[in-house]
Amino acid sequence: MNILKKDAFLRLPFVCGLLLLGSNSFAQQVVLKNDKIQRTLTYDGQVWRTTSFTDMDHKRKLKVTSDEIHILPMETTKGYSIDAFIAVNKPKEFNKGDTCFVEISYRPKDEFKQILEIPQELKITYFVVADERFSRKKMQLSYARKVTVDRLEVERMYMQKNANGGGRGEPVFIDNAWFFGLEYPAGHSRHTDGNLPKADARNFEKVGNYSFIDLEGRDIEPETKNGAMRLMHFPGFAKQNMTGGFTIDSKIAATGVVKEDLSIQQSFMDYLSTMWKAPRSFLHYNNWFDAAAKDLSGDGLLNVYKSFKKAIEPYGVKMDAMVADDGWQDRKSIWEPSPRYFPNGMADVKLLRNKLKKEGVDFGLWLSISGYTNNIDWGKAAGYAEAVRNEYFSQYGRYYSLSADKYKNEVMKKIPAIAKELDLVYYKHDFNDLSDKSTGNNHPGTDRHGHEANLDAQIDVLLATRAVKPDIIQNLTNWVWFSPYWLVYSDYLWLLAGDDGMNANWPELSKWAMKSTDRDAYFARMWGNAGDRPLVPISRIMTHGIVKTGDASENETLQDWMDYALMHYGRGTLLKEWYISAASMTDDEWKVLCLVDNWAKKHRNELNKTFYVGGRPDEGAVYGYIGWEGKQGVLTVRNPAAETQTIRIPFNETVGFSLAKNMGYHAQVVYPYHDQYAKTFTSGKVMEIEVPGYSTMALEFREGAVPSMKPVVSKLVFKTEKGVDQVTTKLQVPVAIKDRAELLVIGWPHDVQVRINGEVQAPSKSEKAKLNAFAGYAKAGMILPKAKDWRMNSFDLMRYKGQEIEITYNRVDGFESHVLLERKVVAKDYPAAHDVLWPLSNDTRRQTVKLF
Hints:
The chain is an alpha+beta fold.
């Protein structure tokens, strides 16, 4: 592309371009632009500095003052910006395909040449792709000898605008119109005064089974300045190049502008979608909890699949893979099969894979890239370096240093080779500690540099695996963090919860309900604050899926089971995991699971974009997940408390809805019954939906108003009086009830004796609190100080239908009493199909009323 005069340039119908303005030997401005975004650099007589960004659609300009680069040596607080350099020659401009580049070379000023960390040559490259709403920047530092750089800032600039976001692997948002991010999961970003947020200070960090890397304060800029924004990482050693010199290549920084009709957060995710692993649904079985398939030497795994196939094929459901979890490997090896199960090594694993393939299902493996759970003493004796863990990770297991040459070279070959040889479709990469303070393993002996070196090695392994198996699903579990940039390398990230917990902070009778509360309490804690939640979509989060192995605690109703299954799928998760023992399943339970799976498949577009709404379930708050695709929405909502509650849901871009405001929408209830929800919702205004106690509901939204209707069930007739030493309720039990009529009594904390018509009642079901019983490794950030002890008893009232009864309680305080009824109604017709939820209570409506 030629360098043009300004007026001629602006008349061209270009896709992207470069504009140099000025008539002297160095032009005064460089303008890199396409038809969406523009970055302007101004020459100050020695160097080029970014002075503004322009939103080309709206002619909106962001003025900045830029240091362009900041190099911090080890063991000092004095760093060096572009002021230490002088430009060499004119900026070099060139095109590759639809991408325009500007490359500017610098040499150090004379007074800085003796500083080891100042490179002999600094090359900064700016580039933009046609039609994209973002531009990028990278830099290369070249040295004659090996040097160590503690911290490298790829962007350091100042702007007098409101800023938020930032953190480890997170972008910074400026003025709700711009984003700045380092395209690297372990990059760090700061804003406002250059030091916010503090390390690990976001609402969703240090929660559950979290990752912690000690930066030792080296992320902090001691001389704060108003409006500072910084994007940085910790490169450590310069690497030797092909010519015998040494280089440090920075991570890539991106700057983007808001997209029409999207929030800045949505605009960032739109940008990320140009580089991430595209969302994919993946249904699989994992043998971790199933004794029937732990022994991989015979046909156990194959027989499990055959039983699954028989159960699910009639509903059109197909498993994507059968997965062998931890235990398939020889722990005294680098990912060789266990001779206990596979005496002929990989040939026997391939035989198992072939048997599964013949039955119509693919195969996947659990594999910890760092060798966690393997025999590290064996590895050290074989010459593989062990990582030196920081204090936090020292409480957990040992693993190898991924950045150490011998181990990295081995797994770079072995892990992709296994995927290729076995034609794997899935890797579950567990235990991603990535903490290494060792020396001699290609990084300085600090946690921050070991972290970056080990992460770089892990990314190399992930990419090498994709190079031989482009379609492989890759799932990163323990100790990941919720950087959206992980999605460039991984399909899913672990929730960081316990494996299979039950949360009994709040009174519930169903064990399935407690399991849902456990998972959803983690989502509430991390995704429940719309002002400070992860950008990673909920649909990309692994939750350990459906866990059912047939223990005694599963003596629950079919509706309890369906509530649990629906909550798993209703979150929107794309990673559909079945940790199921086939022997534990009834025909109806298979039917429930298959219909829910098909329903989720039908609504995949909406469910792929879910947002958490409502409160925290183990505080008794109603909550749910809502997702929108254009004018179609899906809501899965749950009330974990006895009392009827109303959930208030935004109807705007904060939950992914970006269409016109003041338009009418209606909802169809599709579970636990099929019927029109008798209310019109207006886009742009808060939706209010009433949810009966201990109920899970699914609603589908479409455009169009509906007439309001009267309630289908009448009010309950009762009267409660508090005496000196007891409470009495006179209750008219309705005639038209079916299947379930219960008196629910919750003691805070003691049991309450209940009499009906003078007779002491024995509860039909009882539960008690187990406060803050989170898995020990996943308690962080989850403890609920205000959780209090409780006892709950259920009393069957079905035999009293049509009667007036007198209920007396032997306490006058410290308890509450509710009635739960399934009131009969005329069932509405519904389109029974394999992708329609089973309306288990289509001819009833749940009614929950607080009596005391």
